Prior knowledge:
This protein is 57% helix and 14% strand. By secondary structure, it is an alpha+beta fold. It contains two helices and two strands, in the order ααββ. It starts with 9 loop residues before the first helix and ends with a strand.
Amino acid sequence: MDTPIADLSFEDALKRLEEIVHKLETGEAKLGEALDLYEEGTRLRQQCSARLDAAQARIEAIRLGPDGRPAGVAPFDGG
């Protein structure tokens, strides 16, 4: 892979991770390559997880007023 993991979009990182999982599950990679792929996959998973956490932190929930109408937004609490 030529593009640094930090520069990949979420979708591209996830696609690469799926490719790695496929290679590891099918046994296409020899031991040395499999270890390198596993390490890359770990970094990709961490990158995807960090991007999802950041996206969740930006999500806002619509707050309703006493009359049931939208009254503004509040940070999403994940619960």
